[in-house]
Amino acid sequence: MATVRLGEAGSAALAAGCASPEVVARYRAKLVQVDGSGCQWWTGAVSGRGHGRFWLARGRVLVAHRFAFALANGVAALAAAEVLGHRCDNPLCQRVGPGHVVTSSYVENRREWAARRDVTGSPLGDVRGSRRRARELRDLARTDPALVAADLVRLRRVFGEQPSLW
User: Fold this and answer.
1) What is the domain range of residue 89?
2) This prediction's pTM
3) Which residues pair with 32 in a beta bridge?
4) Could you tell me which InterPro entries the record lists for this protein (predicted)?
5) Domains: count for the chain
């Protein structure tokens, strides 16, 4: 994901949102836990790249995991982050920390993506594409998180843990 500069007004709106129990509750209402996954799954709107979209305030939309990062680490830490990367390769993931959403650089994020996209069974290589995959899994998570867990098990059975041939 590219760096998005908030600007003074955006930073103030984000800080107000992080401090607002109503905004935080609205954000957290869109999270579910899926058995067998360490991710916190987003069930709200999804962007063209498969990332969650969160309406922070009237006229202010933010990538959901950026809100999660600001909530966990502060607005200043988000402003200092060049890029946030999903080490779990799940663009719907909202869990901030090792193995999930972490600070990164554009170069490091692209290098990790390139190294993992061709690994057999990697979500980065899903033939549905990132947006369609995210929307389908999000819709399953909205219905019942157990359906997402079943789909992840099914995909592991289909792809196994074998290395790709080429």
Assistant:
1) 7-158
2) 0.85
3) 41
4) His-Me_finger_sf
5) 1
